[in-house]
Design brief:
mainly alpha; 3 helices
Length: about 110
């Protein structure tokens, strides 16, 4: 963030980090299980000390709600990993389709 914006006035929110893969953290992607839905691993990583998909989604949603509630009527820039951002985007786009919400995903 500092390299892109030149600013250091931001807050890190641990709840927006990538999914916890347990002992597979930092390992090559070919070790991920093959799934029918890209990026959806169910409970696979929980057995290896990581998070289940439901735990991951709950954490990201809780963190996003806390941020929005702390900054009502303000523009918010969230920078995270693709998995966390896509989880947030998919859940929010389903729940607010009828409202005028613009989501910009930067990668």
């Amino acid at each position: 963030m500092e390299l892109v914006t030149g600013q250091t006035a931001y807050h890190r929110v641990k709840g927006l980090k990538e999914m916890n893969f347990g002992i597979f953290e930092g390992q090559p992607e070919y070790l991920h299980p093959k799934t029918t839905i890209v990026g959806h691993f169910g409970n696979h990583y929980a057995q290896f000390g990581g998070e289940s998909q439901d735990q991951f989604v709950a954490r990201v949603v809780k963190s996003a709600r806390e941020i929005v509630n702390k900054h009502p009527d303000q523009s918010i820039l969230a920078v995270s990993h693709a998995g966390a951002l896509m989880t947030f985007y998919m859940l929010w786009s389903q729940s607010v389709r009828s409202s005028l919400v613009q989501v910009i995903v930067l990668s």
